[in-house]
Amino acid sequence: MIWTLKTGPTIEPVTPSELREHLRLEKGDTTDEQYLKTLIQLSRVHGEHVTRRAWITQTWTIYRNSFPKKNYIQLPFGSLQTVNSFSYRNSSGDTTTLTEDTDYVVDTDSEPGMVVLAYGKTWPSFTPFPVNPIAIEITCGYGDSGEDVPQTLRTWMKAVCGEIYENRELTLSEGTPKTIKVYESILLDHKVNGVYE
């Protein structure tokens, strides 16, 4: 299973002005504006990687080489909102689209979310296209607003951004600053567990 980002978040959970206030920088001083935006994005991407969930609404395409033996496919992210499409392509290049609630049902309550065979259905039998024959497009994330992201994760972002902002000369050989390590437990509280086949 592999996945690619189709549509990324249009906003970040923390705004530059919120980070500026956290850092106690002068209001109206936009000298480091782009740097603050970069820190915010980097912290969100890292946080999403560790927690295995999308924080702000985004769209991904999941590719598989075959259907599983089980009656479900566990998706690689928590905070699943919807499955937008589910299709497979045969060796001739013909694409067949499966129908939600007829061929499969979507479980958005489980973490991570799943696509489950509808009652009485089986996975299609077909000769697959040689590359990424099965495609599932999903939308996931806590929501469209920074306020939809849990406050603890937003606090984590500010703390990490603050540490990096104050210690720009840190090198990888010096390891992770202690203050960042302390806050890492916040991410583990939100981590999604699951085995992706």
Amount of helix: 25-40%
What separation lies between the terminal Cα atoms?
6 Å
How many strand units?
8
Q: What class do helices, strands and sheet pairing give?
A: alpha+beta
Q: What are the low-pLDDT stretches, counting only 5+ consecutive residues below 50? A: none
Q: What is the helix tally?
A: 4
The overall pLDDT average reads 89
The share of residues in extended strands comes to: 15-25%
The gross shape turns out to be elongated
Report Rg: 20 Å
What is the oligomer described by this structure?
A: single chain
CATH architect. name of the largest domain: Orthogonal Bundle
Short description:
By secondary structure, the protein is of the alpha+beta class. The chain folds into two domains: 2-55 and 144-189, Hypothetical protein yqbg (Orthogonal Bundle); 58-140, no CATH class.
Describe it:
With 197 residues, the chain is of the alpha+beta class. It has 2 domains: 2-55 and 144-189, Orthogonal Bundle (Hypothetical protein yqbg), CATH 1.10.3230; 58-140, no CATH class. Helices cover 27% and strands 22% of the residues. The chain contains 4 helices and 8 strands; from the N terminus they run E-H-H-E-E-E-E-E-E-E-H-H. Strands 1-2-8-4-5 form a 5-stranded antiparallel beta sheet, with no helix packed on it. A 3-stranded antiparallel beta sheet has the order 3-7-6, with no helix packed on it. Strand 6 and strand 7 form a beta hairpin. Helix 2 (33-51) crosses helix 3 and helix 3 packs antiparallel against helix 4 (178-189). The N and C termini lie close together (6 Å). 27% of the residues are buried. The mean pLDDT is 89.
